[in-house]
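Methods, example record. To illustrate the input and output format used throughout this study, we show the complete record for Tol-Pal system protein TolQ. The sequence lines were provided to the predictor; the line carrying structure tokens was produced by it.
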Amino acid sequence: MDPNIVADTTQSLSMTHLVTHASGVVQVILIILLIASVASWTIIFQKFAVFSSAHKALARFEKRFWSGGEMSQIYQHVSGSSNLETGAGSIFCAGYEEFQRQRNKIRPSDALDAARRAMRVAQMREVGRLENNLAFLASVSSVSPFIGLLGTVWGIMTAFMAIGVAGQATLATVAPPVAEALIATAAGLFAAIPATAAYNRYVHQLDKLDAQYEVFMDEFTNILHRQVPETQP
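The corresponding predicted structure is encoded as:
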């Protein structure tokens, strides 16, 4: 084989050359995948900080809540602390405030139900805050491989058209468009794999936190229930 042909083929197969000389469709696909990858990594780091903060806030609140003391004192401490008035802290404050608001207006059992509903609303808000942008990670993980596959198909079509124009299948004719197609596939996987791993991890953490919030709601409801006879006239 002519050394000049091998040298030209090697140069045309460099990453920079393949990207800059790719067809317009493939370049658009690569740009879309790059944007999706950058956005997903940004969300991954943001959600890491959010979930880390949520776990720490839950641990701090449970330590304060189960340390003993009057409910009113715990409420004043939690409601006045920005580090505690999130997660289980916000659920506790919502339930306590609603129970104190309704305890002298309606039957104690109805006050408990009202407090439970208020805690449920606070729980849903907290879960909604935690799962914000997780849908985007799910979309990137599921759609990116297909976008990359579109670039692959387009690159293979370009290879066949190049063979048709040249009249024969040579390395210099086939290698660049095939490599271009493989780059699109790799870009799709590069965007999808981290998004998939992060999504699964954060969904697991969300389910775990939600279950802990649910347990706390049951425990706090039982505590309020024990206080009901004391609030009856």
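Annotations derived from this record:
Confidence is low (pLDDT under 50) at residues 1-12.
The CA atoms of residues 37 and 190 lie 8 Å apart.
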